[in-house]
Amino acid sequence: MPGMILLCVLILGTGVRLALIHPVQNYLLDFRAYYAAATAATGGLDPYDTDSVRAHVTLPGQQRIIGYLYPPPTLWLFAGFAKLPYPAAQVPWLVLQFGLGVAALGLILRALRCEFGSPASVLVGFAFLGSAAVWELFRWGQFDMIVVLLLTLAIASMLGDRATSAGTLRLRSGQAGPGRHIPLSGGVWLGLAAVAKVTPIVYLAVLAIRKRWKPAAAGLAVIVALFAGALIWPGYGPTLSWLDGLQSFSADQHAAMSPNNLSLRGFVYRLFVEHPTHEGPSVPWIDLGLATARWIVRLAAVALCIVTAGWLWLRRRDLSTAECVCAVIPLVLLLAPQTSAHHCVQLLLPLAFIIVTACRCRRIPAVDVVWITLIVLLFVLGSGGRVESASKPWLNHLISPTTTYAVGLTWLFFVARFVSLKQTAAGIQRVREPKSARQARPALAN
Question: pLDDT of the chain along its 446 residues, tens only?
Fold first, then answer.
């Protein structure tokens, strides 16, 4: 009961503070861009032509309208909010985001058979709702909770094929469930997430690598269908404008060097390149030049991909497809050209797997306790990419990206410790299970 009360207080307090009070007192810069782009699109303008949008759409407040970068199908959602008066539309928008976030939290806990109010659920809820990523999402009015819920629905559908009692016992012990079947809905949800944010298309590749061809094909079909619909509205021209803008933004060195970019590229560039940014000049640790920094990023990215691919192959019988997708989430956040703090709300899913599995162990190895604690603290105490130090300016680049460190340590934990932790939890469960239940377990992982 105390855990239930604590979790409810955490959820209600976060909702009131971020979803109700915050949008009433502040203009949300990113939602302002969504609203303006949808208004322009409904008026027959190109929503990706920022100058045209600024010239024809006038909104209250002193903030300048920034460019809209998200895929054309997302405008279908914002067209509905554009019918509401601004800035009043901010409140229902953030209430929606909060509701989706709580739904994702509840759904992943349910999919992992984690009791609501248990210590594991409280720790997962605290790590998620108390994180800098969630705060930054509500600060700017972002829509990443939509992506998180879609990814959670995909993971839940992958874990949902648990019809037999043996499968339920294996899930509770932290093991993969029975059979090789994954519902088509798993791929459909991943396809919808890719339409919203592009990068989740990598998770469809994980399904293909695991030879889950039908769900992967279903996800690709969803992407094709929705982009075909976008050719009708907002139209062929805006779709081409989006592609051009996406390429330009990925190549924008000012954005890459910004302290708001928490990806590997941003981290390396700030350490080794002296370059102006939108926030001011970047003072590097050692100025190696942009060309050298690019090679460092490429080599590091290749190394991370090789290590992850090798681990997934070697552990393919020990991991479910859902666990493989969750292990790749922090890798995608690290390797994306531009990763803002609010993108990292996706870390809810791998953190939930790690924390719930750890809490099923009777005795957790000390290294895992310290590792998980450090991840949660870095994620919760994250600065959103910027800490001003009173000492040398280059030191800011090392102490600021706490969320980057949380993401990197989450990836490393999966590769180095997760299977061992999972086997520890499974060993404890096997002691408690009757012999007949152990013999009933199928050999194949989902």
Answer: 788 999 999 999 999 999 999 998 889 999 999 999 999 999 999 999 999 999 999 999 888 899 999 999 999 999 999 999 999 999 999 999 999 999 999 999 999 999 999 999 999 999 999 999 999 999 999 999 999 999 999 999 999 854 333 344 444 444 444 345 789 999 999 999 999 999 999 999 999 999 999 999 999 999 999 999 999 999 999 999 999 998 888 888 888 888 889 999 999 998 899 877 666 677 788 889 999 999 999 999 999 999 999 999 999 999 999 999 999 999 999 999 999 999 999 999 999 999 999 999 988 989 999 999 999 999 998 765 555 554 566 677 777 888 999 999 999 999 999 999 999 998 754 444 455 544 554 444 45
Handedness of CA 137, 143, 145, 151 (dihedral sign): negative
3-state secondary structure of 281: strand
Amino acid at 430: R
Cβ contacts of 229-232, under 8 Å, gap ≥ 24: 229/73, 230/71, 230/72, 230/73, 230/75
- CB-based burial label for 41 (10 Å; 0-12, 13-18, 19+): buried
pTM of structure: 0.91
User: In whole angstroms, what is the distance from residue 6 CA to residue 137 CA?
Assistant: 23
CA angle (170, 172, 176) in 5-degree steps: 40
